[in-house]
Design a protein that fits this description.
By secondary structure, this protein is an alpha/beta fold. The protein contains 7 helices and 5 strands. The chain has a 5-stranded parallel sheet, sandwiched between helices. The longest helix has 19 residues. About 9% of the residues have low confidence.
Length: 184
């Protein structure tokens, strides 16, 4: 009888814990509050940098943004803007800096991605997506190169995964947290 009682107690404990633990915590990811704090920390100094960079001059200055868990909070608030990133984007745009987006999403979904970004408050100048069969790091570099070939000077590159920063074609990186690639 005591084994049965122990099994029931264990089962009840597991059920209670599964309700109390968020999906992010269960996956080893921090909660939304910690993630937002970490994104604010990662973007520290970004507005001052852009202001100073604009003052130095140049033509067709742009900031390149990744989308998922960078511009849009895919994991924590699906489809909503990441607050600190949106404030940075709005500030850069107010200084005449163009906003270009470079995503691992399939090229066929670009119209939907633009719609999501605009609905979240981002003014989208250009967007470039991933091609089927193409390694993500190659895609990200190809897209930045395309923006440069179109005449943009990418003064900042904002993202949360190492693939966003492979190669060059940008002046400064702002790397948001991804918790050892667990935040996809």
């Amino acid at each position: 009888m005591s084994r049965r009682l122990l099994a029931v107690a264990l089962l009840a404990t597991v059920m209670v814990m599964s309700v109390l633990v968020s999906p992010s915590q269960a996956s080893g990811l921090p909660g939304k509050k910690k993630w937002l704090k970490d994104t604010r920390s990662a973007m520290s100094g970004s507005r001052a940098y852009v202001r100073e960079r604009v003052q130095r001059g140049g033509t067709r200055l742009a900031v390149n943004f990744d989308i998922d868990n960078t511009a849009l909070a895919s994991r924590y608030s699906s489809g909503s803007a990441v607050p600190v990133v949106l404030r940075f984007a709005e500030y850069a745009s107010s200084l005449g800096v163009r906003l270009v987006f470079n995503t691992g999403r399939n090229e066929n979904g670009m119209a939907r991605a633009v719609e999501e970004l605009r609905r979240a408050g981002y003014p989208v100048t250009a967007i470039c997506g991933h091609r089927k069969g193409e390694p993500l790091r190659t895609s990200k570099q190809r897209c930045r190169q395309r923006f440069v070939d179109d005449g943009y000077t990418i003064i900042a590159n904002v993202g949360n995964r190492s693939t966003v920063f492979v190669g060059g074609n940008y002046e400064r990186a702002f790397r948001l947290p991804n918790y050892h690639n667990r935040l996809a």
